[in-house]
Amino acid sequence: GLSQYSSDPRTEWDLSAFSSREQVLEAVRNLRYKGGNTFTGLALTHVLEQNLKPDAGARLEAEKLVILLTDGKSQDDANLAAQTLKNLGIEIFAIGVKNADEAELRQVASEPLELTVYNVLDFPLLSSLVGKLTRVLCTRIKERSHKGSAGSAVKDTPANTGPQLSPSDLKISAVTSKSMHLAWSPPLRPPKKYRVVYYPSKGGTPKEVVLEGAVSSVQLSNLTSHTEYLVSVIPVYDTALGDALRGVTSTLPLSSPRSLRVSELSHNSLRLSWKAAQGATHYLVLCSAAPDGAED
């Protein structure tokens, strides 16, 4: 399976999409590069929630491996998301190109780092990694499969467990230009914590609030006015993530001054008056002389 990401991760194809090497190679040839930001944490969460579920082709008995390919430093918390995957027994290989942050790669990747972290100066040099990486991946899968069959505890990525592990009925209320209130119905089995992730739909830094599992509402503040926000409520258990609850809403525009009036005109002055804009602390008054070209 393959997903691309910038500020919004996008699944290109699921694990169950193709059944032959030729089909996969053809899909790679037709792939179009997705430019943009580098929200690696959001991408790893997307892979866990969307791509490693049984309905996307993930087999419960199979080893779970994620190969992260990045050419920049993450603009959100990649380590937190990576830790969630690793806690679920998912192994992460991190490959950096050009401006990737090696310290971050080493934080995100699974142990042993000498087998899971790679860094090259430019994209054409990735071809030099293919042989070694293929051997390492195949060896790791065999080792982990053997441990699992020998009775070791290998955690599986949870299946979609519906209302038992997933919240429902997201309600977004009290929306202002700077804030909104979220509330939801908790799952039948209360989670250990909730991760509430929110960010502007047209690109922007994702922000996150972590709540205790007994809480089922939150006030989001310091938002940007007149902006569409995507919000996700993700329940976190000791060894699983429930399905995220998602919503979208827009903050209100800032209020404007109204009823502009001009009075007390003289040869070099005039008086302006208006009805106040709610919440405004200052006003900027711009005056341009007509016709164009005269001094402001």
UniProtKB/TrEMBL annotation:
Query: Which is one Pfam family of this protein?
Result: fn3
Sequence ranges assigned to domain VWFA in this UniProt record: 1-133
The organism's superkingdom is given as: Eukaryota
Bias regions of kind Polar residues — which residues?
A: 158-167
SMART domains found in the cross-reference section: FN3, VWA
List each copy of the Fibronectin type-III domain by range. 166-255
Q: Where is this region: Disordered?
A: 147-168
Q: Where in the cell is it found?
A: Secreted, Extracellular space, Extracellular matrix
Q: Which UniProt keywords apply?
A: Extracellular matrix, Secreted
Q: Which InterPro entries match?
A: ECM_Assembly_Org, FN3_dom, FN3_sf, Ig-like_fold, VWF_A, vWFA_dom_sf
* Main localization category: secreted
Work out whether the entry's keyword set contains Nuclease. no
User: Could you confirm whether the keyword Phosphoprotein appears in this record?
Assistant: no
Which CDD domains has this protein been placed in?
FN3
What name does this protein carry?
Answer: COKA1 protein
From the broadest rank down, the organism's phylogenetic lineage runs: Eukaryota, Metazoa, Chordata, Craniata, Vertebrata
- Designated gene of the protein: Col20a1
